[in-house]
Fold:
Amino acid sequence: DIECYYESFNSVCEVTMLNSRSQWINEWQPVMRHLRDFEDKSNKESNYAIFIAPALHRDTINTFWTSVKYEYEERKQKIVPLTITQLIEILEIVKYIKQNNFNFTHIKFKELLDNIVDIQWISNSWDWANQIPQKINNWKKLLLSNS
Structure:
C-alpha cells in the first residue's frame, strides 16, 4: 500500500495481482476498511483509494460501486478502480505533459479521480466500469487542449 499526501487531498493506493473471483474475496473488505481508517485519520476532506489490478473482477467492481454510490460504514467512499493498463495510460499522459513543460498539478489529477467517482447518474456497476476508460480519455483531451 502507498499513501499519498497532496495539498488538497490524500490517497491510498492498493495493488493486487489477483483478477479472478479471489480478487473480490481477498481485497474488497480490506480496501474499503483501509480507506475508512485512512479517512478517519486524514485532515483532508477528500480522500481516495486507488485500486489497481490486472483486470477488475465484476464482484469487486460491484462492491466498490456500492461503497461509492451508497456507503460503507454509514459514509460514501471514493474508490477509483483501475486496471494496470489504465494506470499506464494515466502515467503516460502525465509523462507527456511534463516532458513538454505543460502545467500539471495535483489538482488536475484530483479532477480525474473526482470524475471517476462521480456516479450519481450511473445506474449500475457495469456501466461505471465501462465508463472509466472514456473518463480517462476525456481527461486526456481536456489536459492536452488546455496545455
In short: Helices lie at 21-41, 58-69, 84-99, 106-117, 125-145. The chain has a mean pLDDT of 95. The chain has five helices and four strands.
